[in-house]
């Protein structure tokens, strides 16, 4: 069928690479993916240990992050959150 796959990040076209080279490229890509994942996990754990908030505060109603990285209540938004909870109850 001569159907190929083009890996844009690695700039690999499977129709233009032999199977041995493709296996090596794929193994390298897998290892890089694992390495990135471990680095991200390490960063998240380090932030947790230091007490820094890991929160998408731009999507979080009622709070924002202060300059020191600590959550700060936004009074206007806090009123909206209270109203939502009152209406729920």
Automatic annotation (TrEMBL):
GO terms for molecular function: DNA binding; DNA strand exchange activity. InterPro entries: DNA_bind_recomb_sf, Resolvase-like_N_sf. SUPFAM superfamilies: Resolvase-like. It comes from the Bacteria. It comes from Allofournierella massiliensis. This is Resolvase-like protein. The lineage of its organism: Bacteria, Bacillati, Bacillota, Clostridia, Eubacteriales.
